[in-house]
Specification:
Glutamine Phosphoribosylpyrophosphate, subunit 1, domain 1; mainly beta; 6-stranded mixed β-sheet; 42% strand
Amino acid sequence: MCPGILRQRRSSVSNEETLSAMTLNITLLTSEVIYQAADYRLYDVNSKRPERQPSTKAIIFQNPDWTGFVTYTGIGRVGTTHTGEFVRDWVDNRSDLSFREVAERIQSAAGPWILRYAPGSRQTFVVAGFVEGSPEAAVISNFERWHGAEEDEVSSVFFESTVRLKGRPEVVVTGCRHVVPRHRRRVLKRQAEKASVDPARIRRALADVIREGAESEPDLISADCFVYSQDRHGRGHEETFGHVRTDLPHVLPDSARQAVESLLDDHFGEGTWTMKSGTFARSGSNPEPPQDCVLTLSTLPVNGRHEIVQLVNPEGRRATPRAVNSSGLIVGEATPRWQGPSYPAMWQDVTSLVFLPHFGGLGGQALSVNESGVIVGRSETSDRASTACVWRLDGSVEDIGSRVGSHSGAVTINASGDIGGWVSIHAVEGGQAHFRPAFWARTGNPVILEDLDGGWGQVVDMNENGIALVRVHHGPSAEAGLWDGVKLNMLGQLSPEVRSFYPKRLTADGGVVGTAIMHSSKREIATWDQRDGWGSLGAASHDRELSGASTIPPQTLVGDTEREDFRVPWLWDHATNQYGLIPHYVHHHHHLSHVSNDGLIVGNASSDRCSHPLLWTPG
């Protein structure tokens, strides 16, 4: 077990303020890019059980003089306040502080903080960034040095040990350090040297280390994780591995704040929105996007007759199509300005991108469209709450979420206009632990499935009979259920070897297709139907990801897998019972979002500096 967790004393905090500890962070310093990887697990040191609420354990700093981030391990949350929020208060949410000032403020404030909330507990903060062009990490701890050496006694006084990179890459592991042994750290260093021009490959390697740690300490480390990388020029890239998503706080310079404010004024009008300090999306320090990259088709063999078409890209150079109907109407999200937030959008054809009406916040996405052209998704409001929305082709938008919960999102809509998604049952918070499945029937009041036996979840799909496919989470495991708006029927698991099942699509006849994740972390594409029960398609694999499926036979499934260090798109055709690659571009990672019953596929190809919205059409 992890000594950094288990050696903490019982909290002095009241029972109403649950104290949570966090588990594994990895910081990798290279001459050109700094990486930070963290799992999402929170662990209740009082009950000695993992918590269901996920947590991203990083704060991003963007300053004209240095760029980097702060991460931490030990106490992750006190009551409803995450440690990152304490850190932001310690630095006054100011981006004009130098690297050294940030480290000094954390070191000064951490001692009184630990004495107040958890005396005797172990805590470590890592401040990492490029200082005058050189990578540097300051480890601020009450018990350990950056290289792992520990003091005999845990103190309330925090001390600093600093590593300044002068040669080969360096790895700093905090939290459950024992799950990343010395030989594994050496492998990471070699990978960082070998793949120095491919940050995405290194991010995946860090995610693999987190997943391996989760196999040995499943209660303390989650297999899903978050990896952030930032280069010496301040360009950052965030990537999530697995199915958990959480917010990443940023502390931004005034120039970035002004860029975001200008964006909101342009789109929504002056005085029509508000911004909460320290919680808005990253705008970045580089005002101009990089030059367009040249897309070159891969020469890897492909099956089928699909052709690839580039959709028009917004000025912000990032866009993700999420769904397409048989008429070719494509919906998703796009970024109006370089390094700005993304907003709900639709492509009426391959050359026409339209931003949908919005409720004044910083972000949103359109997630589903039916054959009538009715679009559903979510939009942020001016106070940063997410609310479920319906857009119609006449240009109107309807808020269907704010009247039923503080936060909500619509995920899917069927031909009849029934909508499925999620609603937060917390009075003010929108974290995933508070998500409950929601059903907005075309006629009648919305229904929220509040009783999930201590779990959380959401509707992920809905068929034409009004049956909702629900994903339910209990701790580290996930499973599927069918819900008719009244009764929930859980489907169980494919086999005892399966840890979680992530449902993706509900077929017209009530069948289910999704991804089964084994205890070994391998994945199988699994199916369920009412007559034959569970089945699987093909052998288990570590790298195959399912992302879309048609709903009528012969069923087509799409996803991505790894080839030559990049994610490339595959298609499974039930008519031939075969996996095969479809056309794609070299040196880009591909993600397929949706396949229609007519065989239209949408997705994108991305690198650290670009994202290209794509449509695949059957020949």
